[in-house]
Amino acid sequence: EKWDFVLVSDIHEMGSEKEAKRKKFLDELSKKGFTIKKIEDTKLFYGVRAPQQVFWKYQCLLGKPDKKLQNENSPQDIPVTTRIRIVHFILHNTVTPDLEKLNDLMKKKVFEAAFPLHEKEAVREFLKEKWARWRGVFNEQPIEKIRCYFGEKVALYFAWLGWYTCLLGVAALAGVLTFVAGITLFSSSQVSREICEANATIMCPLCDKKCPYWVLSDTCTYAKVTHMIDNEATVLFAIFMALWATVFLELWKRQRATVVTNWDLYGWDEEEEELAMELINNLQHEPRKYQHSYFRSTIVLLLVLLMIMVLIGIAHALVIYRVIATALFAQSSLGLLREQADTMAVMTGAVLHYITIVIMTKINRRVALFLCNLEKPRTFSQRENNFTMKIFTFQFFTNFSSLIYIAFFLGRRINGRPGHYVRIAGRWRLEECHPSGCITDLFIQMAIIMLLKQTISNVMEYLIPWISHKLRKKHKHPQKRSLILGEEVEAEDPCKRQWLSNYELNEVNVFSLFDEFLEMMIQYSFTTIFVAAFPLAPLLAFLNNLFEIHLDAIKMVRLHRRMVPRRANDIGIWLQVLEAIGILAVIGNGLVIAITSEFIPMQVYKYMYSPCAGDNRTDVDCSTGYINHSLSVFRIRDFEPDMGPGTEEPGLAPTGLCRRYRDYRNADDYTYTMQFWHIFAARLAFLIIFEHVALCVKLIAAWYIPDVPQKVKNELLCRKHTDLRKELRWVMPQQV
C-alpha cells in the first residue's frame, strides 16, 4: 500500500480533550475523501492517502506541469514528489470546527509528528548506494534522481553546491599559488631581514608598568610570516577573487537556466501554483491580498538595528577580552607566554569568537523568527525570504564584526601613542599592531574560525543525528497494547515496520534546507570578503565542500525523515545574497589592501623616500630602510605618570634615552609627519581606484556572459512556436 503521509500521536485517554481534537481533525480529512489507516504501537500512527480527484484537479488547473516526471506507461499517474507536496499543503491548511490547523494541534501535543515516508523505491536505493556514501565523494551527483525523490528545491541546492565547489577548485589553485609565492619570500624579504637584524632597535613596552622594553629583532619569525602573507601577489589575488565571484555567479545563472529548462520549469509561477492548491483544498478560498504597513516595517527595522547593535557590542566585548588577555599574558611568569602575548591573545580570542558564533546562531534564529511573525508575511515563500535576509544579516555581523575590528581598527590612530594611549575604563590600553603590520592577526583569526567551523561544526552536524538515530533504533518497543480505545488492531501489519522505521529517523522541518544554504553563504563570505588576508580560504572551503555534499546526502537519505519536496526554478533570494557578498568582497578586499596591508606604505616609501627615489639605482633593494623609516621616536620622560615600565631589561640602554614605536610622528611634538599624509592620500586613492576598477570588471563580466545560454533561448522559442501551431490546428478546422 502507498501512503502519502503519516501522522503520529500519543495514546490519549478516551474522552480526553486531545483525543477529541484529533478525531475532529481526522474527520475533516475524511470529509475531503482522504483514506486513513490506523496502526497502534507505543504511539498511534495514522496513514493518510489523498483521493485521486485531488491530483486530477491539480493537473487540470496547471496543465500537467509534471509531464516530464510522469510514467510513460501510465501518464495519469502523478509523481510522488507532487503528491507529497499537495497532501502536505492540504494537511497544514485543513481547519477543524475549533478553527485549529495541524500546526496548532502539534503545538498542543495532539499530534507529535507528520511526515512523508521514505519508500523502498528504485530511486532511493540508487541514491543510498551511489550518492549517500562517503566513498562517493568524487562521483558526479545524480541531480535528476535527486529531483525525482526530493523535489526541485533540494536538487537545485545540490546543483548549486556542486557548481560552487567545482569553481572553488580554480580559486583554491590561485590561492595556493599565492601562498607558495609568499613562502618564497619567507627569508628573502628585505623588510623581514631588517627586522631580524634590528638588534639595537629598542621598542616601547607592550603594556603598562610590568612590561619591559624589547628588542625589535625578537619578532623575526613573526615578521617573516607577515611578509609571507602580505606581498604583491596578494593584491593580484584579491583582484582575481573579485572577478572570480562575478564569473561564478554568471556561470551559475547559465547553468541554472539550462537545468530548469530541462525540467520544463523556466517559466514556472510559484504564486499560481499556491493559488491552485488553495482552491483544491477549499473551493471557496479567497486569496490573501498584498498589504504593507509602514508602521510595522519601521518597528521591525528599529528592532533589527537594535539587534545589530547588540552583535557589535559582543564584538566590543571580544576586543576587551583581547586587550585584557594581552596585558595578562605579557605579565606572565612563563617566558613563552610572555614573549608571544599578542599572538596568544589573538588565538584565544578567535576560539572565544567561535564559541560566540555557535551561541548567537541559536539566538539569531529566534529573533529573526520573532521579527518575521511581526511582519505577518502573506505567503510561506515571502516569510522565507524575510527570514533569510534577517538571519543572514545577523549571522554576518556575528561572524565578521570581530574580523572587521582586526582588519580596520586594530592598531590604528584610535589607539593613541606612547604617553597618550586610549584606554578602556581608564586602565587597559588598546592593542597595537606589530611593526610589520596587522595582517597576520587577521590571518590567524580567519584560519582558526574556518578550521573550527569545518571540523567541530561538521563533525557535530553528522554525529548528533547519527547518534540520535542509533539510540532511537535501539529503543525496545513494548508489545502492542490493544483495546485502550476499544478498537482491535492487527498484530502483523505490513505497513507497521515501515512506519516505525521512518518514525525512528531524525525530524526535519521547513528550515532544514535553509540551514544548509545559510552555512554555505557564510562560508562563501569567508572565502571572498577577507580573502586577501587568507589566500588559503578557498582551499579550505573546497576540501570542506567535497565532504559537505555527501554529509548532507547521508543526512537526507539515511538519517532524517523524508523532506517535503518543494518546487522551485532557482535558489531564490540566496542569489541576491550572493550578489551582495560579491560587492562586499570588492569593498572588503580593497580596504584590507589599503588599510590592513603594508603594501601602500611600502610603495610610498619606495617611490618617495627610499634610496631608489629620484634615481634608478640597481645596486640596492628599494625597501632598504623601510622599517627604520616607519618607526617613530618616543622620549621616556613623556610617559604617563605611573604607566612607564617598572624595570629595565639587562643589556638595554639606560633609562632616559629614546624608544621606538610604530607610527609616523615627529619626535618633538608627536604630530603626524608629512609621510603620514602621503600614505593616507595614497591609501585613499588606491581604495577608490581598486574598487572602481574591480566593480567595472564585474559589470563587464556580467555583461559579457549572458545569464541564459543561446541554446536555452532557442529551445524556449521552439517550444512557444510548437505550442502556437498546435493551438492553430484546433482553430483552423473549426473555421472550415
Automatic annotation (TrEMBL):
Single GO MF descriptor: protein dimerization activity
Domain Anoctamin dimerisation: 70-143
Membrane topology label: Multi-pass membrane protein
InterPro entries recorded: Anoct_dimer, Anoctamin, Anoctamin_TM
GO cellular component, one term: plasma membrane
Domain of life: Eukaryota
Pfam family, one: Anoctamin
Listed transmembrane segments: 154-183, 233-252, 298-324, 344-361, 391-411, 524-543, 573-596, 684-705
Record's keyword terms, sorted: Cell membrane, Glycoprotein, Membrane, Transmembrane, Transmembrane helix
Main location: membrane
Subcellular location(s) of the protein: Cell membrane; Membrane
Domain Anoctamin transmembrane: 146-716
Assigned protein family: Belongs to the anoctamin family.
Name recorded for this polypeptide: Anoctamin
Lineage of producing organism: Eukaryota, Metazoa, Chordata, Craniata, Vertebrata
Gene field: Ano9
